[in-house]
Every structure is written in structure tokens, then in C-alpha cells.
UniProtKB/TrEMBL annotation:
It comes from the Bacteria. It comes from Rhodovulum adriaticum (Rhodopseudomonas adriatica). InterPro entries: FAD-bd_PCMH, FAD-bd_PCMH-like_sf, FAD-bd_PCMH_sub2, FAD_lactone_oxidase-like, Oxid_FAD_bind_N. It holds the Pfam family FAD_binding_4. The keyword Flavoprotein applies. GO terms for molecular function: FAD binding; oxidoreductase activity, acting on the CH-OH group of donors, oxygen as acceptor. This is Decaprenylphospho-beta-D-ribofuranose 2-oxidase. Coiled coil: none annotated.
């Protein structure tokens, strides 16, 4: 195993790092690499500076991606941290199992899903990813250590959503979900405005729901969009595997200009008839809609982009509407705006979810975005909500303690697990997660 100097970034590409990277394939190589060198990272699908360590070393875990065991009767799988969620779906869907919670990209690694306690389109009834983790094995100074909620509740909860600060995640045992087939029946419905969207979420009985929002609209059409409701169905994978596309170069500045975004959004919503549309889709098309376009982040140009994702409590719908109004008035949002309803499920001290509504919007990295983000951050704070570390690149540390009331408990566990701070990432330092000073 060799250390190589490289420039790299998270998925948003707005914040970058230069440092040394190692990609171990075996436990012995990983043990040597971790000797006080730096944090473990995955496929760097977190958007901001969570997966980078500028000026230092980091261990890329993506080659440690083996399946270790599987119980076909119970659906319990053990795998190394570098395996991707898409690979777990590919291997087990035809056997009648899939991960119970999946994020919006299949390129996320098992370790990354744990470190961010990710959520999916079924959070309102299935909770967060970490709630389906039965055990996690961490690398410690004394070698691998398996941790469960029963054997060490504090360390387990500090690891779920803990940004990799309790130790490098080597592997995990995951409870998969039994499924009837490899198909998803999807109903797509036009929604006229924001209030109608929240009402549609509240009355939907679907297991999987997600909304696409046209973030350019104001006034009576504020929050118009498309609601997708999904139901798992019997049958093999429908249709041939579609060929993936790729964005070969950084798009020019005008590619996602405001007029272009408005035209795209108008076209996108026009595809759905007034009476709604029903169709059958492969599982990966429903869960990972953007994965068919490799390197789609290059559409934002060489300066990259930021994502703002917040969640506010269920009774704060008017406050979320005001947040969306701020975004629409800013005139810089991209086509990728997503609204979901969340339940109370969360597995860790720093887990993002709460019972409420979550909104995610991309912004091309422009000079005025930090000021816009600061206004949005204050609105979220006033609403009793929180920001998502997996997407963040611009939040201020003063907001975090109020957004995450279990921060002190997390800090206590991390101080025991990594007293020298070897595992700190740029996000951890920027937000002062490990220390108030």
C-alpha cells in the first residue's frame, strides 16, 4: 500500500483539499495506515467538507468492500465498510432482500451511511439507516472492536451519525428488508402549491414518498411540484438495464442560469398529466434517479455547488414555507429541490432526522450564496430545526449546539475514542463539533 498526494473534494466540489491518501485492501494495511494519520473516508458522496482533510492524511476505505456473511433466513448481512448501497441492492434484491433504508445515491458506502445515519424516502415509517444496524466493528488502538446498542449504548449512538469520529468503521451487520420482487409501482401526481404538498404527504399511505419542488416559483405557485409515491411489487426487474450517461467536462457558467432552470422546471412538471401518472420502475431507478448520470455534479461548473438541507418540526409548516420563499426570491436555486416527510426515527446523538419535513436545495457556488445560506440557517434555527451535516459546507458553529441538543453526550464519547483528534475532518473543525472553543 502506498500513500499518494492528491487533490480531492466532496460531491459538491466547492470545498477542496490537498493531502495524502491511502487505499488499503486488507486489515493489516489499514492498521498500519491508521497509526495517527487521519480519518477514514468513503466514496466522498457527502456534499461539503465532511469527507475531506485538507493538509493532512486520510484513508480511502472503498477497496475494503467484501461481503463477509449472509443469513438467507433472517436477512442479516455483514459487509466491510467500503461496499456501496447499490452493490448490496444488486446482490440481494433477486434473493428477496434489500437495505431497509437507502439514500438518494447508490454510490454511498456502508460506512458513509452509518457515519451520516442517512435517511431515505421511507423515513416516515422505517426510520434512519442506523436503526437497522445490528453491530458495527470499529478499529481501535487495541484492534477491531464490535459495538452494539446493547453492549455499549453510548459508543454505538455516538458512531451512528457521528462523522467517523469514534474510530474507522471496518464492517457492520445490517438487517435487510424482505421484499416481494424487484419492481416499484410509482404514482406521480402534480401538486399545485406548498400547502397542498404538505397535505398530500399527511394523507399519503404509501411506504415511499418524495416530492420534487420547483424552487423558482413564488406567490400562489410557491412550492408547486410532483409527488412520487412508491410501493414495492412482485416480479423480476422490469426492462433492460439502461446505459449510464456521463458528464465529460465542467459545464459553462450559463448552463444552470436562472432562465435555464425555469425552462427545465416547466418541462419537468409538464411531463405529468393533470390526472397523475402510474408506472412500474426498477428499484434502482426509483431510489437512485441521478446515478444514471455519472459525474452529474460537473453540471455546476468548476466552482461546484452547495446544498442546503434542513428539517423542521411537523408543526412548523409555515416556517418552512417562509424558508422556501427566501430561496425563491434569491433567484439562484437549481432544478434539484426535494421535499420529504420524516418520522421520529434516529439512531445517534448527531443524527439529522426528526419528525417533520425536510427540504433540500442545490445552489451553484456563487459569491452571494454564503449570505443567502446564513439567512436560511437563522430561519431554520428559529423554527427549531436543524441542518444536515452530510450536505453542509457553510453552516456556522454557533448554531450547532441548539440544533443538536445531544452534542455534549457525543463529545464525551468521542473524547474517549479519539483523544488526540486524529480522526478530525474539515467539517468537524469548521463546526467545532468536538470542542466549543
Amino acid at each position: 500500500m502506498q500513500w499518494k498526494t492528491a487533490e480531492y473534494s466532496g460531491w459538491g466540489r466547492a470545498l477542496r483539499a490537498r493531502g495524502t491518501l491511502a487505499r488499503p485492501e486488507k486489515l493489516s494495511a489499514l492498521s498500519a495506515a491508521l497509526q495517527g494519520r487521519g480519518p477514514a473516508i468513503g466514496n466522498r458522496r457527502s456534499y461539503g467538507d465532511g469527507p475531506i482533510h485538507d493538509g493532512g492524511a486520510a484513508i480511502d476505505m472503498t477497496r475494503m468492500d467484501r461481503l463477509l456473511s449472509f443469513d438467507a433466513e433472517t436477512g442479516v448481512v455483514e459487509a466491510e465498510a467500503g461496499i456501496t448501497i447499490a452493490e448490496l441492492l444488486r446482490v440481494f434484491a433477486h434473493k428477496g432482500w434489500m437495505p431497509a433504508v437507502m439514500p438518494g445515491t447508490g454510490f454511498a458506502t456502508l460506512g458513509g451511511c452509518i457515519a451520516n445515519d442517512v435517511h431515505g424516502k421511507n423515513h416516515h415509517n422505517a426510520g434512519s439507516f442506523g436503526q437497522h444496524v445490528l453491530a458495527v466493528t470499529l478499529m481501535t488502538d487495541n484492534g477491531p472492536r464490535e459495538v452494539t446498542l446493547q453492549t455499549n449504548r453510548g459508543l454505538f449512538r455516538a458512531t451512528m451519525g457521528g462523522q467517523g469520529q469514534t474510530g474507522a468503521i471496518l464492517s457492520a451487520k445490517l438487517q435487510l428488508k424482505a421484499i416481494p420482487g424487484q419492481r416499484m409501482r410509482v404514482k406521480e401526481t402534480r401538486i399545485s402549491d406548498f400547502d397542498s404538498f404538505l397535505a398530500a404527504f399527511d394523507t399519503s399511505e404509501a411506504e415511499y414518498t418524495v416530492g420534487w419542488i420547483d424552487a423558482t416559483k413564488r406567490g400562489k405557485r410557491l412550492g408547486r411540484g410532483i409527488l412520487e409515491e412508491g410501493t414495492l411489487a412482485e416480479g423480476g426487474r422490469p426492462g433492460p438495464v439502461k446505459r449510464s450517461l456521463s458528464v465529460p467536462l465542467d459545464a459553462p457558467h450559463f448552463a444552470l442560469s436562472w432562465p435555464v432552470v425555469k425552462l427545465f422546471n416547466a418541462f419537468y412538471i409538464s411531463r405529468i398529466p393533470d390526472t397523475s401518472r402510474k408506472r412500474t420502475r426498477p428499484l434502482e431507478d426509483f431510489f437512485f434517479p441521478l446515478d444514471r448520470i455519472h459525474d452529474w455534479n460537473r453540471l455546476y461548473g468548476k466552482r461546484g455547488f452547495h446544498q442546503f438541507q434542513c428539517v423542521v418540526p411537523l408543526d412548523k409548516g409555515p416556517e418552512l414555507k417562509a424558508i422556501l420563499t427566501t430561496i425563491a426570491r434569491a433567484g439562484i436555486a437549481s432544478p434539484l429541490a426535494v421535499l420529504k416527510k420524516m418520522g421520529p426515527g434516529r439512531a445517534g446523538h448527531l443524527s439529522f432526522p426528526m419528525a417533520g419535513y425536510t427540504l433540500a436545495v442545490d445552489f451553484p457556488a456563487r459569491a452571494k450564496v454564503p449570505a443567502i445560506f446564513a439567512r436560511l440557517e437563522q430561519q431554520v434555527l428559529d423554527a427549531g430545526g436543524r441542518l444536515y451535516f452530510a450536505k453542509d459546507a457553510l453552516a456556522h458553529p454557533d448554531s450547532i449546539a441548539a440544533m443538536y441538543p445531544e452534542l455534549a453526550d457525543w463529545r464525551a464519547e468521542v473524547a474517549k475514542a479519539d483523544p488526540e483528534g486524529h480522526l478530525e475532518t474539515d467539517l468537524v473543525r469548521r463546526l467545532k463539533l468536538r470542542s466549543a472553543t
